[in-house]
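Why predict the complex rather than its parts? Because the way molecules touch one another can change local conformation, and only a joint prediction can capture that. The input here totals 640 residues.
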Amino acid sequence: MNLEIIRRPFNRYFLRHNPYLFALFLLLLSLIINYFLQPNLFELRVLNGNMRIFLPLMILAAGQSIVVLGGGIDLSVGTIVSLVNAVLITNLARESGPAEILWAIALGLGIGLLAGAFNGLCVAYLRLQPIVTTYATSFIYSGLALYILPRPGGAIPAELARLYRSTPASIPFTLLMVVLLLVIWKVMRATRFGTFLYALGGDAEASFTTGIVVPRMRLLIYAVSGGFAALSAVALTLSTSTGDPRIGESMTLDSIVAVVLGGTRLSGGYGGIAGSIIGVAILGTIRNIISFANVPTWWQTLVDAVIIVSALAGPGLIKLLRRRA
Amino acid sequence: MTIRGYKLPAPLIALTLAVLLFFLGGVLRSGFANWEQAVNIVRLAAFLGIIAAGQTLVIISGGEGIDLSVGSVVTLGALIMFRIGDGSNSMILPALGLALAAGGIIGLINGLGIAFVRIPPLVMTLGMTGVVQGVILGFTQGVLDGETPPLLSTIITRPIIGRVPGIVFFWLIFGLAMWLLIERTSYGKKLFAIGTNRVAATLSGVRVNREIIITYALSGLLAALGGVIVLGFTDIVFLNLGNRYLFPSIAAVVVGGTVLAGGQGSYWGTMSGALVLTLLTSLLTALQFSEAIQQMALGVILLLLLSIYGRQRTN
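Output of the joint prediction:
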């Protein structure tokens, strides 16, 4: 009798304070299946290849998590990536020197922050609903991207591409960036911004009552999301070495799926970046499985979409079953 | 918006805006404001209006209701009519039935996910868009052959009375039917109830889940119908046929005075909104703006409209 009582509350505590556990389980499961189909999965070369593709989406999903944690959502993140990618590629060339590179990145980051701040302005001060607002602004940003870069093209300095592909001390550079991302998040969480973020997402009215300047916080949150989208664009530009005004189109939904997969609740206040990063890894691994399982090309989109919808249903289904039980 | 204490209904404002835009177009581009163009605009607006009908229902139902899958369902509906209809008038009805069924099933899945699994409508319908696109790719294998049944094109494009094509009359009757559905059936009453306050609705005996599922199923069905009608106009199918209607469908509903939070709205408003949106896009095209500028303009305009109509009531 005693053991039973001790075990149950412990489980609930453990699960509540580690929201990404289910995601970790899913990741393990998909990695095992992937390893089965692709035995050299953990070879440095293959691992590096995968991480290079995952990194941009991981950074984007991290930014999306922050918005979601604060109780909102940002449907324009993908288009901000396209926009910053366009800005970067039009300010870089194969022969660009360090000064030009720094300028291009600073410009891209600035534009990302501005775009995010614009989103934040509309949500916080104009009191518009986040969903439709960011959906509307996504058209503005994608239009801008098209305007700046009407056709795919451009090139970046070879050293940058090499840096992105490098493996210092047998660890992929991109993997190191993920670790850096997690460190940045840990620092963020420790600041007032982090505390207020969870407060706002948990209960907006209560946080207002405790003195949090809600509109300013919301503006900041969306600006940060724009900043993360810009960073994601930098990674993406280094990865693809080119520019494409539509490059970010599919990333928005993927970022939301990764956030949901990672255990962060869309209602806000619960979850974290780690889960979303794991979510991106799960998505990527599943896509690898689809291509290695020899699914016919024309059916790949459907299989991918069905898996995404099932993954989205996952947390909800678990809750449903628990309610019925 | 109130003038001298009398609250102007949003559909009326939208209608006035539409008329203003029409004459503005005539000023900016000579030859724009004539009867032919007016008929053309109304016809184009009819397509958007029918597609936006389902969106109207979904948004009224509240709970952050939105249907982002209408774009791909429109394409699916058009494709089914194109393939199964295959140029023969006798196959129009079976193909139509199949298209409506397909749209309805997709909507049903949306509704099930949203009502029972509690997936937010945004996420669910966005995910289903991918599924529908996957279905389309899988079944067509990239090959888009088929033919539009001639009778369909005739109904949609040829004039019946005066110089007005049949689709315009259809739209008017459709609008009447939607009004009946929303205002005079128990489904409509329950729809407003769940849009206003889910808890109160449940306590009043409304089967909220069932209402939600029916609403999304209807949205899918109407989107498929819209697809069939669009096919009658364009005569060809391509993979992104429906995408250009998704964003305007949401905008038309908002412009028409339906509140995004739910519980309020009407289809007349959406009809006016569809007119406004169609006029805007026609104007932008007539002024020969590039696709980039058109996209930006659409986004800015929706934002403007949202700030007038869509402010949240609470903190």
